[in-house]
Amino acid sequence: MIAAQVRIAIAIDGPASSGKGTVARFVAARLGYSYVDTGALYRGVGLLMLRAGLDPTDAGAATRVALGARFDFEWREGSLRLKIDGVDETGSIRGEDVGRAASAVAVHPGVRSALLQAQRDLAARGGVVMDGRDIGTVVLPNAQLKIYLDASLEERARRRHAEAPGVPLDAVRQQLEARDRQDSGRETAPLRLADDAEFVDTTGRSVEEVVQQVLALARDRGA
Ligand code: CDP
What we know:
alpha/beta; Rossmann fold; 2 domains; five-stranded parallel β-sheet; three-stranded antiparallel β-sheet; 9 helices; globular; binds cytidine-5'-diphosphate
């Protein structure tokens, strides 16, 4: 019997620089699925806070900003773009200062609930690969495939350092550790391995190897 192919939802969670975005993008492309980078939404809120001169630890202000902004994802020439209130901010959200602000605003329950429905709407039709910190545990608890990607701190620091060589490796390692601690230690939707997630260690492995492993797991689930 040949099983019918279905358009499943794939949740990929893990710490900073574990390879989530790269793996998610390739897996989505191979399956003809859409890719949703949920970290971009938290980064977007962080960016707006910094621009407005607001303190990202201020829960009320961050929640108002998250509720007031309109986020749209768009695919252009093979890359995922984020528009905030109609303006393309893709180039403005990637820095570590914005990453830190994102992690600070992501602690607030009001911010998380403001962004929750938008994320679920993006996955509603299936055929999606979504990456973040709480996708398998909170956003898409019924995702047919949940992956938890990890890599050693040393390797993650090397990867991030290669992307932004201006910052010394030691400082990059410390920034990653601080962000991991904040993301895993928060009360609302902390980064953790879902009970039914597949743990995939990417340390010392090529992107293609990991992509093939995730694709095999996706096919097992009917993709
Ligand atoms: O690219 P990187 O792994 O450094 O981070 P990201 O995925 O862009 O996420 C930036 C920050 O947003 C994280 O450090 C988390 O604090 C937060 N985030 C979250 O809380 N929940 C998500 N689903 C995605 C991101």
